[in-house]
Write a structure and sequence with these properties.
The chain has 7 helices and 16 strands. It has about 325 residues and is α/β, with parallel strands linked by helices. It folds into 2 domains: about 240 residues, Aminopeptidase; about 70 residues, OB fold (Dihydrolipoamide Acetyltransferase, E2P), CATH 2.40.50. Strand 1 and strand 2 form a beta hairpin. The structure holds zinc ion.
Length: about 325
């Protein structure tokens, strides 16, 4: 096979043929399970299973380049992968269209009933990814899943992670250490169930899963790869077994959800305009939003906003207000 895996994937937006061996190397085999889906099976299995996903939103190319380079380096023998690993390039068709998705947001198609939905490309993709992950994960392994994204909206804190809602599990401090070592600035602890890919792997398999937002969306070839250096290093280190776990954090900022801002009616408006970056702070007493039902004012000087969108439907969530979270001792 002369081409690289990303090129093969872009040339095969759908692939319904049998799995095939991509490359046999000294310590294992790379096996193509479908378009954008390739598994590395080491000859000697460790107790860890790793999933790296990217391109769940097709136009978020930086992480796709990182993952494709890792696959290429395993293929060439430059990266000595020891972990049983599944690599996922989520949405090849949207990628070719340079769009976030084709018909609907793929990262809202997990951990829910898909049988009620029409089989558009994104839904079929979700079904295929769910099935491949289900075959991949074995019982009694330590499971890791990092779902890599970049964002359209500017952000005061460039790189951040969403920690899925897992009320029954203790906070995983080694994973927080990993996030800090990966150059992540902040973690937002989710407070509810979700239909994201990282929530799916977390709730269904007990995986240590995160949605990682790694900076700004760019086109292929235009990404500033230096800005991904730290995470690229830790992702490779995990595969090679050289990453040293660390359960202490010093710089990583932790946030919890404080208020879900709901749009109650058509008069809903924010006190700020759409260009306000994610993680912008409010001043004590500042008006955040208003409609006929509610006026929300900042309480203290530590609240910040993420994902503001005044154009959601009435009754839906228009923004999250977050505040610093303290870890239990
Ligand atoms: Zn994304």
């Amino acid at each position: 096979m002369e081409t690289d895996f990303l090129s093969w994937t872009r040339n095969n937006e759908t692939y319904n043929e049998q799995p095939f061996i991509w490359k046999e190397i000294h310590n294992g085999v790379l096996k193509v399970l479908g378009t954008g889906l390739i598994e590395f099976i080491p000859r000697t299995l460790t107790s860890t299973q790793v999933v790296y996903s990217c391109g769940i939103h097709g136009n978020e190319t930086g992480p796709i380049e990182i993952i494709n380079d890792i696959i290429s380096d395993i293929t060439s023998g430059d990266l000595n992968c020891i972990q049983h690993t599944l690599f996922i390039i989520g949405n090849p068709k949207a990628m070719n269209l340079e769009k976030r998705f084709c018909t609907e947001n793929l990262n809202r198609l997990f951990a829910r009933d898909l049988s009620v939905k029409d089989d558009n490309y994104d839904v079929l993709r979700a079904k295929e990814i769910i099935k491949v992950m289900d075959n991949f994960f074995k019982e009694d392994t330590t499971k890791i899943h990092y779902d890599l994204h970049t964002a359209i909206k500017p952000s005061e804190l460039q790189k951040f992670a969403i920690y899925p809602f897992t009320p029954d599990r203790a906070i995983d401090r080694e994973q927080l250490g990993f996030l800090e070592d990966s150059g992540i600035d902040a973690v937002v602890f989710s407070n509810s169930e979700a239909t994201t890919f990282s929530y799916h792997s977390s709730i269904k398999y007990g995986a240590s899963s995160f949605t990682l937002e790694l900076g700004k969306v760019q086109k292929f070839g235009e990404n500033d790869r230096a800005s991904f250096k730290e995470i690229e290093g830790t992702l490779r280190g995990i595969l090679e077994g050289t990453y040293k776990k660390n359960d202490s954090i010093s710089k990583l900022m932790l946030f919890e959800i404080n208020i879900e801002v709901i749009k109650h009616d058509d008069t809903f408006e924010f006190s700020f305009d759409n260009t306000l970056p994610n993680f912008s702070k409010f001043k004590d007493g500042q008006l955040i939003s208003k409609d006929r039902t509610d006026e929300i004012y900042a309480n203290g000087n530590e609240q910040r906003v993420i994902f503001p969108n005044p154009n959601v439907k009435v009754g839906e969530r228009a923004a999250l207000i977050i505040r610093p979270k303290r870890l239990p001792m």
